[in-house]
Amino acid sequence: MSKAIKIKKGADIKLIGKADKTTSAATQSKVFALKPDDFFGTTPKLSVKEGAEVKAGSPLFYDKTRTRVKFTSPVSGEVVEIKRGAKRKILEVKVLADSETRYETFSSWTGGSDREALVTTMLDMGLWPFVKQRPYGVIATPEDTPRDIFVSFFNSAPLAPEAAFVLESEKDNVQLALDALNLLTSGNVHIGVKTGDSFFDSFTGVTKHSIQGPHPAGNVGVLIHHVAPINKGEMVWTVNGMDLALIGRSLKAGQFKAERTIALAGSEVENPQFYTTMIGAKMDSIVAGKLKGDNIRIINGDPLTGDTVFEDGHLGFYNSQVTVLPEGDHKKFFLTDGWLAPGFNSFSLSKAFPSWLNPKKEYRLDTNLNGEERAFVVTGELEKVFPFDIYPMQLIKSIMVNDIDAMEKLGIYEVLPEDFALCEFACTSKVDIQQVVEDGLADMRKEFES
Amino acid sequence: MKVVENLLGKVKPIFDKGGKLEKLYPMYDALETFAFVPDHTTHKGAHIRDSIDMKRTMFLVIVALIPCLLFGIYNTGYQHFMALQQEATFMEMVVFGLWKAIPLIIVSYGVGLGVEFIFCIIKGHAIQEGFLVSGMLIPLIMPMDVPLWMVAIATAFAVLIAKEVFGGTGMNILNVALTARAFLFFAYPTMMSGNKVWVNAEGGAVVDGYTGETLLGQAISSGANFYDTAGVAYASVSDSFMASFLGFIPGSIGETSTLAILIGAGILLWTGIASWRIMLSAVIGGAVMGLIFNIVGPQISPENLYLQVPWWHQLVMGGFMFGVVFMATDPVSAAQTFKGKVIYGFLIGILGILIRVANPAYPEGIMLAILFMNVMAPTIDHYVIQGNISKRLKRLKTA
Q: Are A265 and A19 in contact (CB under 8 A)?
C-alpha cells in the first residue's frame, strides 16, 4: 500500500561536501564512550564503576525513573573513565576496548508473537533507546503500547546520507527489525520513503508512504503529521530508519552489534565518503587526517540539528552522519561580506541576497550567526519552511512565556526541536528556536508526567 | 578594513565593563556591529544560519524608499516653481527640494535615534535597527513646510509613547511613523491640512487662481473634476489620473508618486520583506469601497461629487498607496498570520477609503485606518489562531 505525500513548504540547503558513495572502514578506535546527554529526558544512574570489566552489551548506566531502560557498552573492555561535569553530572562513560570483542549473549529474536520476550531482549541488549516516543521525543516507556510506529527512510537534511545506500547490504536485518516493530504496536508500522526510491518496495508488513519535497519533508514528524497527527492523550513511537539495520542485526545474533555506517561530509572534509565504525567511537578515529584546516567545527549529526563535538569527543548514539564545517568566529566587514555586501557567497532563503540567482550552487557556509539576536519581529518567514498545520511563531512565543495551556492548544505534541531546524536557520532575529522548543517540551513533560 | 577593526578594538576597553564610558557601551556596540557583522557563532541546533539579518532587512526597506524620496525632492521644487510660474531648471528644482527635505530627515533621525540611544543606555540593551526605517518614513509623510520643531516633538512623542513605553523595538502596537503624523495631525491641524502647507510659495506671488490644495482637497469640493496646481482643470479624468499616478501634484513629500511607490513595492515584494497578502488585499479593499461609493453615490446623494470619484482614481490619490505599501506592512504592528494579514489588509483598504470619503474633515483616511487596524490586528490573529485550535480539538473528538 502506498500513499503519496507532497510537501511544498521547506528548503533544501545545498552545501559543498556531499559524501561520495564509497565505504571504507574507519580506523579502529581504542576508546568508546556513551553520553547520557544523547538521551533527552533520561536521568542516568551508573551500573558500573571505573575499572570494571564489561562485554559488548553489558549495561553502563540505566534510566533512574524507568530502570528497565539500559544503556549498554558497544564494545568489551575496561571502564577507564567516568567523566563528570558541573554538579557531578555524568558526561561520558568511557570504555577501553579489547582487541577482540567479547559479547554478552542474549536470547535472539527472529520472529514470533511473544511481545514481552521481544521487549525484554531489546531492553537487556540496549536496543530499547532506539525506540522513541512522541510527544516529547524521549525514549519510549516499555510498558506502553503505542497507537502506531513511524519510521522515516527519507533523510532530507543537508548532506544527509541516503538510507537506501547505507542499508543496501542489510535488507534482511531491516525487515527483521520492522517485523519486531510490528509486534510492539497495536496499530500500524508506517514507513516514509522518498518518492521514486524503489529500494523499500519489497518490505512487508508495513504501510508505505512516499514523500516528495524539500527538507524537512523527511522528518518523521512531518510523516506523522500528514498520516495521522498526534492528539492530546495519544502516543506514537518512532525509530530512525538508519538504526534498523543495527537493531535487526543484533536481534538476529542475540548480541549487541554496534557497528554502523556513517557519512563523513561537509566542506572541510577531504574526499567526503562513508565509513563503517561503531557507536561511541572516538571522533579522531573517524576524522583524523581527513580535515582541511584547523578552524573547523565537527558536528555529530547534520548541520541543522547536530551537536558540536571535538576530535577527542565521541560519535553519538543516534548519529549516522558527521559533518565538518568552517568555524565562523571572525568578524565580517559590512561592505565586503557583511550586511551591505553584494553577498554572492552568502546563502539566504529570502531574496535579500543573490543566492536565488543560482539555485544549483553549493555553498561553503560557516557557523557565524550572521547577525545579532533581535526582537522576534519578522513574520511570515518561518511559515515558509514549516510544513505543519501549526502556527510556528505563535507556538514559539507561547513557549517563551511558558503558557502551558497555549502550547498544548497550538500543537506542541506534534513537534520536536528538529522540525523547527529550518525555522531557526531562516530566523532574521537569530532566535535559538530549537532550544526554545526543547525547553517547552521539557516543561510540558514535567507538568504532565510527574 | 583591518585598520578599522584594530581601531575599534583599541577603544573597546573604554566602553567595556569597568571602563570609563561603560554606560555608553550600546553606542559603541551599535557602531561596531554597523561596521562588522560580529564574530558570534552558533552553539547547537542549527549550526549554519541564513545570511539575512535585521540590518539587511531594514536596509532593503530604505532602498525601497529611495525612489519615493528622490521623486519627492524633485517634486517639492517642481511644485514650488509651478506655483510661482517661474522658469526653473531641473537642478534648481532638485536643490530647492533638497533644501526642504534634508533638514526634515536630519531632525527625524537625530531626535528619534537620540531618544532610542538614551533608552538603550538606561536599559543596557543593544540598539535595534527598527528606527532606521521609521526615521526615513517620518519626513516622507510630512508636508515639506512643516516647522522642524514640530517634527522633533512628533518624533520624540512617537518613539516614546508608541514604542519605548511598550518595551522598545518589536513590542509596539502602533506604527511609529504614523503615530508621529497622527500626533501632528491632531495637535497642529493647521499645519497638516488645508491649502497652505503643501507647496512652498515663498519668494514670489502665486499665479491667479492658484489653490495649492491637494487633489484630495479638490475632490471633496469638485469630484473628479481636478485642477492642476495653477488652477487649470485637467483636460480629462485620465489626465488627472496620470498626474497623480506619476506624482506631479502637491502633497506630503514622499507619497505623491504612485509610480515611485510601486517601484518600492516591487523591491519589497521581490525580496519577500513585505507581505504581498497585506498589500494586495488592501488595494482590493480600497477598490471595493471606492466601487461601492461609485455605484451607490449617485443614487443616495447626487450632489456629493466626491462619492463619484472613480474607484481607480481613489487608489492613486493621497497617501493611500504609500500607507498600504510602507506602513500597513510593518511586521510588528500588522497581523502576523497569513489569513490574518489578508483580513487586516482588506479592512485597511475599506476603512481608508471609507474615512476619506465619508468624513472629509479627515482627508487622509488611510492614516487612521492603519492605526485603527494596528490596534485590531491582535484580535484578528486571535480568531485566526482560534480556528486552528478548534480544528485540532475537533480532530481529538472525532478520533
A: yes
Looking at the 3D structure of chain A, how many domains does it have? 2
The verdict on residue A388 lying in a domain is yes
Which residues in chain B are closer than 8 Å to A430, comparing Cβ atoms?
49, 53
Q: Please indicate whether, in this complex, the C-beta atoms of A375 and B395 are within 8 angstroms of each other.
A: no
ipTM of the complex: 0.89
Pairwise CA distance, residues A25 & A55, whole Å? 22
Cβ–Cβ gap B392/A379 under 8 Å: no
DSSP string, A388-408: SSS-HHHHHHHHHTT-HHHHH
Residue of A295, A224, A247, A297 lying closest to A109 (CA atoms): A247
Q: State whether A349 and B50 contact (CB < 8 Å).
A: yes
Q: pLDDT truncated to tens, each residue of chain B (399 aa)?
A: 677 778 877 877 888 777 777 777 887 888 888 888 888 888 888 999 999 988 899 999 999 999 999 999 999 998 888 888 888 899 999 999 999 999 999 999 999 999 998 988 888 788 888 888 999 999 999 988 889 999 999 999 999 999 989 988 888 999 999 999 999 999 988 877 766 677 776 766 666 656 666 777 777 766 666 666 556 667 677 777 888 889 888 888 988 899 999 999 999 999 989 999 999 999 999 999 999 999 988 888 877 778 888 888 889 888 899 999 999 999 999 999 999 999 999 999 999 999 988 887 777 789 999 999 999 999 999 999 999 999 988 887 775
The whole-model pTM stands at 0.90
Are A428 and A378 contacting, i.e. CB atoms less than 8 angstroms apart?
Answer: yes
Query: Do A111 and A230 share a structural domain?
Result: yes
**Cis before B250? omega within 30:** no
The residue range of the domain holding A434 is: 369-449
CA distance B266 to chain A (A): 12
Q: Are residues A257 and A388 in the same domain?
A: no
Residues of A in contact with B273 (CB under 8 A): 350, 352
Per DSSP, what are the bridge partners of residue A333? B36
**CA A17, CA A21: separation in Å to the nearest integer?**
12
Q: How far is A380 from chain B (nearest CA, A)?
A: 7
A35 touches B: beta carbon within 8 Å: no
Which of B2, B7, B47 has the most A C-beta neighbours within 10 Å, making it the best mutation to test the interface with A?
Answer: B47
Using only C-alpha atoms, chain B has a radius of gyration, in whole angstroms, of 23
A286 inside domain: no
Interchain contact A434–B (C-beta under 8 A): yes
Residues of B in contact with A435 (CB under 8 A): 44-45
Can you tell me the distance from the alpha carbon of B297 to that of B286, in angstroms, rounded to the nearest whole number? 16
* Short-list B40, B41, B70, B36, CA closest to B55: B36
CB-CB neighbors (< 8 A) of A367 in chain B: 41-42, 47-48
Task: Report the distance separating Cα A343 and Cα A361, nearest Å.
Answer: 14
In a domain, A24, yes or no: no
Looking at A191, A226, A261, the residue that finishes a domain is: A261
**Maximal C-alpha separation, chain A:** 67
Euclidean distance between the first and final Cα of chain A, in Å? 40
A427 interaction partners in chain B (CB closer than 8 Å) = 49-50
> Cβ contacts (< 8 Å) between A349 and chain B: which residues?
50, 52
Question: A31 to chain B nearest CA, in Å?
Answer: 25
- The amino acid at residue B327 is M
